[in-house]
Design goal:
Blueprint (H helix, E strand, L loop, with lengths): L2 H12 L3 H10 L6 H7 L13 H16 L16 H11 L4 H10 L6 H6 L14 H13 L4
Helix pairs in contact: 1-8, 2-4, 4-5, 6-8
Length: 153
């Protein structure tokens, strides 16, 4: 599953416009223009298609958090290189949408998946932790699809 596909799915599910994506990037000082966003959202077979890198997608997610919740008061510390994964995407979406465990459980239930609080917490553990569980492409897709039906408070 490509970052382009995940971004498109998030946009559809959360009803985000291209302008929202552009604003998210600008909040993390990413130099990007509307044409770049258009090229990222093109079909892979299109000659102008741009493959969205992990770094580029992570910048979007960080900007999306700031877009939804406002800028952080925390000083940016020394950034560690972390393997970008579906678990990171799930965690950043949880933060951006200000979701609690109960909200996540409801979102998964909206797509027909029953998940317990302890199963859910395994996806947010550090890689290497004894209870860590890898978030599959299918699980991430179901979460994004469940967001479509989720009614925020």
């Amino acid at each position: 599953m490509t970052n382009n596909y995940i971004l498109t799915s998030i946009m559809q599910s959360l009803k985000l416009s291209k302008v929202d994506v552009l604003k998210s990037y600008k909040l993390v000082d990413k130099k990007i223009v509307q044409e770049d966003v258009d090229d990222i959202l093109r079909e892979a077979s299109d000659e102008k298609f741009i493959l969205l890198s992990d770094e580029g997608f992570e910048l979007f997610l960080n900007g999306f958090i700031a877009y939804k919740r406002g800028p952080s008061d925390k000083k940016a510390g020394k950034k560690q290189k972390i393997y970008f994964s579906n678990n990171i995407i799930l965690k950043k979406l949880k933060i951006a949408l200000d979701l609690k465990d109960e909200d996540l459980i409801q979102i998964f239930a909206n797509d027909g998946l029953e998940i317990t609080k302890s199963q859910l917490s395994a996806y947010f553990r550090r890689d290497g932790h004894v209870n860590y569980r890898k978030c599959s492409d299918t699980l991430l897709k179901r979460f994004i699809k469940g967001c479509e039906k989720y009614k925020a408070k």
